[in-house]
Amino acid sequence: MIPYHIKEDIKILILEDNTADADLLVRHLTKSGLSFVSKIVESRKSFEDSLENFLPDIILSDYSLPSFDAVSAFKIIKDKNLNIPFIIISGTIGEENAVMLIKEGVTDYVSKNNFSSLLQKISRALKEAEELIEKEDLLQKLKIQTAALLLANQELEFQNAEKEKRAIELLNANKELLAFNFISSHDLQEPLRKIQIFISIMMEKEMNNITEQGKNNLKRIHVAATRMRQLIEDLMDFSRVSTTDHHYEISDLEDIIEDVKSELTDIIQQKKAVFKINGLMPVNIIAFQFRQLIYNLMSNSLKFSIPEIPPQITIQSSILKNEDFRLLNLPHSPQICDYWNLNFQDNGIGFDAQYNENIFVIFQRLHHSEEYLGTGIGLAIVKKIVENHNGIIFADGNLNKGVSFNIYIPVTESFDQSSVALKHKQKELHCTL
Asked: Which regions form coiled coils (predicted)?
């Protein structure tokens, strides 16, 4: 019985000068049921040639030959770094010499007078050789993986260094932005204020002494200075939205809307604007930023209303389950969560649908400044505020039929929908009492 599964037709190189001993060895292995092919050599040259051409799986060697011996043969194996099991078969080696050779690296020893353990030792030697090859392959793979890991670590260190460099650059850029804000709020606005003051004085006291062309030019200077001051203030608002700390809190939009309406009371009354506020759900937001958002959208609707037609502004919100949100097939919405949706629409002059995306670009204006005052920053600020909330915003404009804005903000884990809905219900009940 073969104690270890040996591959078929293993190649056995037999180093033996005694033909009878070699035949006896071959007959024993054949009788043991071993499937093999063998080659018998007795000289150094034929031994070395067989290593190159026969490519043996195992070597069975006599200890002493007239012109060659096992010690020399084994030295050749070691010098060539070959992983071939080497078993000495001899009747004259002696146990002491056998132990010494095994310490040197010889695989095993079998006496010519007793072949009973030969098959078992061949099986064990082949198994150990196979395991050694597997171990070397594993070590080689480990070396390759280690080298790759070192390269990856070097790349990571480089990327971290680049990130630190970018962080420093960003910090410096923020410092420059703060400096710009200071200049905008003081150094740039101060000469503008003086220009506007002197223009006002001239328009009040010197108008009778100025030609009609001069009066027209003076009015145009006044309008340009006013617009420049508005542009600076809008740029400051945009930069503050980009750099402010993000402090979230559960907020009631109805309170924010009423606050904005009170600030815009004069123009609301002048244009006889009508508001429809439906189903507003509290939301976890940066409250002061969202006030700016509502203000910009509402003032835009009032500004771009159709002459002689009272503006109608509808504001409503709801919570969309993720599966319902996915059905909308909106781009740039990768988060797997529920969404809070705010819909804001009016019946104003609107714009062509081809400008639905361009409308949020900073300084983008779709109407002449002579018709409608503004800097083109208001909706860019709205978009930046939505992005600060990790949300998305879409505009749907129709020329002379108004515009609808839809804002979607992911509902965070800290936003307890059930408790908010309960508070909202309690508020509705309170309002009906």
From this structure: 112-173
What distance in Å separates the CA atoms of residue 132 and residue 69, rounded to the nearest whole number?
A: 26
Among candidate residues 364, 396, 367, the one with its CA nearest the CA of residue 380: 364
pLDDT tens figures, 26-49: 999 999 888 899 999 999 999 999
CATH number at residue 111: 3.40.50.2300
Q: Is residue 99 part of a domain?
A: yes
Which one-letter DSSP state was computed for residue 244?
Answer: S
Q: What is the DSSP letter of 392?
A: E
Which backbone phi and psi does 4 adopt, to 5 degrees?
Answer: -140, 140
**What Å distances lie between residue 227 and 68, 188, 189, 233, 393, CA to CA?**
106, 13, 12, 10, 28
Query: Cα dist. 10→13, 37, 46, 58 in Å?
Result: 10, 6, 19, 8
Of 46, 26, 211, nearest in space to 115 by CA: 26
Question: 3-state class of 427 per DSSP?
Answer: helix
Per the structure, the complete domain to which residue 378 belongs is given by 247-432
pLDDT mean by block of 10 residues, the chain; 433 residues: 61 92 91 91 93 93 86 91 90 76 87 87 89 87 90 88 83 67 64 80 81 84 75 64 68 88 92 91 86 90 91 93 85 77 92 77 51 64 88 89 92 56 45 35
Q: Tell me what pLDDT residue 347 has.
A: 93
**Nearest by Cα to 338 from 326, 354, 364, 320:** 320
**DSSP characters over 176-237:** HHHHHHHIIIIIIHHHHHHHHHHHHHHHHHSGGGS-HHHHHHHHHHHHHHHHHHHHHHHHHH
181: amino acid identity, one letter:
N
Q: What Rg do the C-alpha atoms of the chain give, in angstroms?
A: 45
Among 67, 94, 116, which residue terminates a domain? Answer: 116
> DSSP string of 16-47?
-S-HHHHHHHHHHHHHTT--EEEEEE-SHHHH
The CA angle 56-57-61, to the nearest 5 degrees, is: 70
The reported pLDDT for the residue numbered 184 is: 58
pLDDT at 186: 60
CATH number of the domain that 380 lies in?
A: 3.30.565.10
Q: Report how far residue 8's alpha carbon sits from residue 37's, in angstroms, rounded to the nearest whole number.
A: 9
- Compute the distance between CA of residue 384 and CA of residue 235 in angstroms, rounded to an integer: 13
Name the average pLDDT for the chain.
81
Q: What's the rounded Cα separation, in Å, for the pair 283 and 248?
A: 10
Is 236 inside a domain boundary? no
Q: Write down the pLDDT at residue 57.
A: 93
